[in-house]
Amino acid sequence: MLDALTIDQLRMLVAIADTGSFTAAAKKLQRAQSAVSHAIQTLEGQLGVVLFDRSEKRPRLTDIGRAVLADARLAIARFETLKARARNLASGVEPEISIAVTVLCPMAPLMAALDAFRDIFPRVGLELFVEEIGGPALLVHERVCAIGVSGTPSLRMVPAGELVTIPLGDVEVVAVAAPEHPLARAGYPLSEPDLAEHRQLVPTSRARQHYPNTLVREIWRIADLGLRCSMILRGMGWGTVPLHLVADDLAAGRLVQLDIATRADELMRVGLFAIHRLDSPPGPAGQWLINALQERLLPWRPLSSQPTGAAWSWKKTTSA
Question: What would the CATH number be for the domain defined by 94-313?
Fold first, then answer.
């Protein structure tokens, strides 16, 4: 008998509980009151329980009725999810999207894009990886993720021609050290021999892709950007990091931006790109997410003309 239960019966149960009467539930559902009463009586018979105490003018849920009501609400929610997912699949929308994002990507525009994605595609699952150098490009190349947000250097680590790249903007990267670090107190533009005597903290990843722009003999490779920033703050070495991550530390004097005379590319802009495999283009939800990232990242540029140690923020620019 339980196999004969219907979502319609459960909807009527919930409507009665929410409106307080069979009459109000019938009006809400645009059904005859007799149909609602019959459905609940049938449901009680199928379950072998009494859901409502009818001894008073207004029906009152029994203890068993309250327990069944909670399950009914859950069953209806799951049924609606099933219908929405089926509609999405029928229209070609992916049931889940996997995306790998470089740690260089500013989090505020990324979160704004994901907020909007959640509202537009509430039933599409999301798997998100945040990866150090080489990670996003490798995960997309190996089909672990369908979409990536990768920095320019990482794109050189996969075979050319296999990935489609869509420009998303750029990120400024600066060389920094703690104020007490000898390089921070040098007082003159630093040459490569100056840097060679001091430990550099550089990124690495589970992909074992080594950071290519090392300037010194002693290298510590750190696979977590937050940890690397913390180690630089403690004076354990110097390193290059995204400006937006250390802006507050520079403004407060907890870090000093290094003036590297002979390697201007150490104070650089790293291009950000959305990527996917050429032979595996994203579906409607994935393409929407790429467009949303482009919309939120391309119009923003860091205020890079400020003096060292000044407060740092984003400014919005308009295209010509």
Answer: 3.40.190.290
